[in-house]
Design goal:
alpha/beta, 2 domains, flavoprotein, EC 5.4.99.9
């Protein structure tokens, strides 16, 4: 193991960005990664059907942040991708987010203007001035019928909790459109890396001052990890502190079981992602990866996603109970010298991809008193 000025636990977005930034100012950086690959949950590869697939679910990059967009473009070429999602409801495929088309198909209406759509929403929603949970947040936006058909059971499958058991912020961020716009995101920049995310991370980490040690559990070797200036930890915060505040009530995380199938057909479905919000099936969605980048192959790969409590933690479960437990760990984290907790699992907070890039860049800038990201490489 090399002597390192900076030790980083995890080779996902947060770890890779911090490693690159510190390497550029001459620091020796060691990344310790438990998995057998870099790129965290963004990791992708070409499967047996010749299709670029993501091992841990589709990752769609979108941002309004010029600094983040400039940063990622230094390490990869990108192609425009305006992501669209449809949901199978009552046998029909309906656009998500809810828009005029969604309402017209479900209710047999002929709404054609934004004014009429706004009126329909006002007439059907159940107003809550300050929603206190996920159910109230959705009812406040779209009313009871759409809530039951598109959100209630899907939320239960995804989180193993009904909306009323989750913080309002989980479902309050779901957009509702008053026009025909069927894009899932509305950000200025929406794109995918031309060579895939793994190649993007390889480029970010391509620096002589960075060493990556794969298939190594930090907790198996942590007593020997000494002499560093700073340590950055991107894993579950409760694991770092040996679950000291969670012996009875553990922090909750959700994982995903990905079931991949080869289908002997050119395409399986008409869209890259089809959600299944009802409880007639156990999976939450089916992803067909060849749609991304218009890939060509004789057969196709589909992946069904089942959320579960077992397996690698992917995202935290935001509610008052978990936040109360997390706050105890946060106090412990802030008391440590030269150890920093960064990313979704360490901060027990959901980040979009661009937010994860931004968070890591801002942390480096705050610690090292720089005003702009340090970038030397261009594609």
């Amino acid at each position: 193991m090399m002597r390192a000025d900076i030790v980083i636990i995890g080779a996902g977005i947060s770890g890779a960005v911090l490693a690159q930034q510190y390497a550029e100012i001459g620091k020796k950086v060691l990344i310790i990664e438990k998995r057998n690959h870099i790129a965290g949950n963004c990791y992708d590869y070409v499967d047996e059907n010749g299709i670029l697939v993501s091992k841990y679910g589709a990752h769609l990059f979108h941002t309004n942040d010029e600094q983040v967009w400039d940063y990622v473009n230094r390490y990869s070429n990108w192609y425009n991708w305006e992501h669209k999602v449809v949901a199978k409801v009552d046998g029909a495929l309906l656009p998500i987010p809810v828009n005029i088309t969604t309402v017209n198909k479900i209710f047999g209406l002929n709404i054609s203007s934004e004014a009429d759509m706004k009126k329909w929403l006002d007439d059907n929603r159940e107003p809550y001035l300050n929603p206190t949970n996920g159910e109230e947040a959705v009812l406040n936006k779209v009313g009871a019928v759409l809530y039951e058909k598109m959100f209630r059971h899907y939320t239960k499958k995804q989180w193993d909790k009904y909306p009323e058991e989750l913080d309002a912020s989980v479902l309050d961020r779901i957009p509702v459109r008053t026009n025909y716009d069927d894009r899932y995101f509305s950000d200025t920049y929406q794109a995918l890396p031309a060579g895939g995310y793994t190649q993007l991370f390889e480029a970010i980490l391509d620096h002589p001052n960075i060493e990556v040690q794969l298939e190594t559990d930090f907790f198996d070797i942590k007593d020997g990890v000494t002499g560093y200036e700073k340590l950055f930890y991107t894993g579950p915060i409760d694991r770092f502190f040996e679950f000291k505040h969670s012996l009875e009530d553990k922090l909750e995380y959700r994982s995903i079981n990905f079931v991949s199938e080869t289908v002997d057909a050119e395409y399986f479905q008409e869209n890259s992602v089809v959600n299944y919000p009802g409880n007639e099936v156990g999976f939450t969605r089916i992803i067909e990866y060849k749609h991304f980048g218009n890939q060509k192959s004789a057969r196709t790969t589909i992946v069904k996603e089942y959320t579960t409590d077992e397996g690698d933690p992917y995202y935290p479960v935001p509610n008052a109970r978990n936040q109360h437990i997390y706050e105890k760990y946060k106090v412990d984290a802030e008391a440590l010298a030269d150890v920093y907790f960064v990313g979704r699992l360490a901060n027990y907070k959901y980040f979009n991809m661009d937010q994860a890039f931004k968070n890591a860049l801002e942390l480096f800038s705050a610690l090292e008193s720089t005003s702009e990201p340090i970038i030397q490489k261009a594609v």
